[in-house]
TrEMBL record:
InterPro entries registered for this protein in UniProt: Sugar_P_trans_dom (IPR004853), TPT_transporter (IPR050186)
Lineage: Eukaryota, Discoba, Heterolobosea, Tetramitia, Eutetramitia
One GO CC annotation: membrane
Region (Disordered): 1-28
Keywords in alphabetical order: Membrane, Transmembrane, Transmembrane helix
Annotated transmembrane regions: 63-83, 95-117, 137-153, 165-182, 188-209, 216-235, 247-267, 279-299
Designated name of the protein: Predicted protein
Places the protein is found: Membrane
Membrane topology: Multi-pass membrane protein
Record domain Sugar phosphate transporter: where: 68-356
Domain of life: Eukaryota
Amino acid sequence: MTANLISSSTTSLPTYNPSPTINEDPIQQQQSNQFYTKGLSNDEETNETKQTEFDILQALSKYNIIGGLWVFTWFSLNITIAFGNKIVYWQGFSFPTILSLFHMLASWLLAFISLRYQNRNDASAEVEIKAEAKKHMWLYIVVFILNIVYGNIGIFRTSLHMSQIVRSTTPLFVMVLSYLIVGTTTSIHKLAIVSLVIAGVIMSIVNNLEINMTDVIILMIGNLFAALKTVLTNLSLKSHKISPLVLMNYVAPYASLGMLMITIVNGELVRFMSEYHKVTLYGVLAVILTSIMSFFLNTTNFIANKMTSPLTMSLSANLKQVLVVVVSLCFLHQGGVTSVNIIGISMTLSGMLIYSVLSL
């Protein structure tokens, strides 16, 4: 009787067919297969696109092409503003320190607006320097202001050509300070190239010069602060992980105050108050335009410094000096050119080309 119960239960259990027969329309089956195949194809294309994007980003990172583009952008803005400032002076605005003050104030204002806009779209975006980093920023602010002070003193006491010649040795100061502060070493090849570029800059702008030892000392101190500013900028952006806009927003007010004090001490502010009416309308527009461009110049300078190195930025500044001389000679017909100038220009351009290749 037990056996019959088991047999009866077994026969009453439903059977499971792992491959049930489903009656499908052949056209519907074909469309389903096509959709499945198309889905696989789209996934493969997406994977290939992602892999291509990854390869491109890897190549850009390996050769630091993005950093090079930022240097080129900063370099182009630098030259543009250099000639824009000349236009400002031609239109009756003969107040260089006040012009620098306007540039810094515009950088501060636009950096503040940019950070507020960025914070509105992204509440987690960094808009202020962290408390730990602020402890290390006072030295940077002092160096930033002293660089401006000594730069203006050097231009005031010496000729522009002499100032440019001494300023061209800044890469040597950068290499020494980078080693002392950060521990960065420079190869013999790069040292030779830097020497070639410096010699080229000196030869390209050399002229009848009159200078005394006091002026040399002042210009060399200015070089020290210029190099120290470049190295500390790189250190602040990388080690303290400060974004360029935040750094600009923090430093610009103090730099503006420092330049305002310079205009009071050297009497430029008083002179501006009595002679501002001599500035033409085109001069006012040029001041506004160069002030706006200075914000982008300072921002790209910080970004390029962060993505490359202080030495690269210093050498690029030397190249800018030579190209300004070339453009002045070729298009503005300012001064004569000698065979020594031509050799110096060729040496500078060749040195920068070799340096760029070795830096890849």
